[in-house]
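Lab meeting, action items carried over

1. Structure of the two-component assembly. Owner: GW. Status: complete.
Input record:
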Amino acid sequence: MSTLASFHWGWLLGAAVIGLIMGWVSIARRSEGLSLPAMRWTLAVIAALIAIAITRLLPGRLGYWLELGLLLGLVYLVGCVVGAWLRERVVARAAAKASVTGS
Amino acid sequence: MPDQRQPGIFKWSRRWAPGLIPLVILWALAGWNGTVPFETGLGVQGRAAIKDMVLDGASIMVEGRDIRLSANAFSEEGRLSALATVEAIPGVRLVNDATGLLPEAKPFVWTADRDVVRVTLGGTAPLPAVRARLIEAARSDLPGVEIADRMTFARGALPRFEAAAVLLIDQLPRLKEAKISISDGNVKLNGMAIEIGGREAITAALKNLPEGFSVAENIVQAPPYIFRINKDPVAATLTLSGYVPDNNVHAAIVAAIGRKFSGEKIVDNLKASVGAPAGFANAVMTALGSLSRLSTGSLVISDREVKLSGDALYEVAANQLRESAGGSLPKDWSYKADVSVRPAASAVDSTICQQLFSELLGKERIRFESGKTDISPDSVGLLDRLIATTLRCPSTNIEIAGHTDTDGDDAANRVLSQKRAEAVLSYLTRAGLSSERLTAIGYGSEQPLAPNDTNDGKAQNRRIDFVVK
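Predicted assembly:
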């Protein structure tokens, strides 16, 4: 996996950037996003794909592409988490400032 | 208020789905651009990893992170080690095992063929290193000769196969054409030696085959073993060329020439070499007698064939020479004669006739078996010349006079000399001369030529004289 990561680091960086952006904007968006059932399905599909990757069920290139996709997805998620966390910090600080100013 | 029950991260994550669209695009691009280079890199690493391993027909195919290794290994350990090596390459996910063991050859056959321009090594070799060493052995043994490698690999060679094969390759320089094979432990060798003696050298070398190998067939032809004598009466020379087996035979032949010929100069170009056919020395001795009866001609012995050609001194001699080699040749030998008769010389008067006899008998003597009345085979040439001279003297009566030295009893000496003179007369009449003008008389020791007190003198006195009456 580390070979895959080091070979595709540029693409992974791209995934991380997309993740950061999505995480950043997700805090401020008003949309509810995916419904709970859809979220469950999504998680189930991801879990299934991870299981397929671990058991090496898909042969050759398909297996390789699956692993690549999951790796990109993982980095994307990490990017989202970091982006959301950063934005949340910024929003919380701004809110604290406003409440101090407002009082 | 479900939102408040959910942790923040879960709430936000429901809004992350739109990012999956660019992510999928990114994924597709990464797959599109990166797959082939990734596979190529893995292939390079894989091939480098097995480069020095002992495998036949090894190939690596990469699909994604999976490697398919195809190869024939020379042993189970080698096969497992190759798989483990490929598996250990960083980045490899799965190794598809398409390896196997080399087939076992039964019988294990290896060949080496030589023709004029090239040596072809074929059949099976047990290991790449052995194959390389066999090719190297052929190259160093035969510089300038093309070495064609048609060997494949198989298991099942006998333990000391390489030593046996190298020993056989080492014989190739001695062969002009060859077909050599090793089938398990059986060595077969067919071919044509370049030089006389090559066949024997190869046979000797094959005795050093390693344990477990034996010669099943050794049919090497050698160039004919040639021995040749040319008799040139004008230059009075005998030119010897070709081969003799060793110095003893060489010396025996030169000694026999001294006895059978009348002092011709010998030009000796003989070389000693092994490879003479059985009975060579006996055949030469027999044929030398026939050559001594020719005025001019040659004797060629080629392997087991004796060929005599030239001019006999008279018709009866020619017929005798055409019929036989003048004695029994060894078994399996053949004799060919292409003998004509020298044109008869002009008749001479009695004075010249006597001179001619004296000249002939002055140079050499008619020899007899020791203490007996049988004419030695060494004297057939001289007798032919005496007969030819007699034929030139048609009107003369000739006395064949036998003499002895003083050793022994007078009466016995007289009888011996008489019988020896009669033996000569009988030989002459058998050659077609009329007995009417020939008389045989034994003088015993009455007419010595030299004092009988030395061995030399006695030898001079033991003689047959031809006296024109």
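2. GW to write a short summary for the group page. Key points so far: The first strand of chain B starts at residue 55 and ends at 63. The longest helix of chain B spans residues 20-50.
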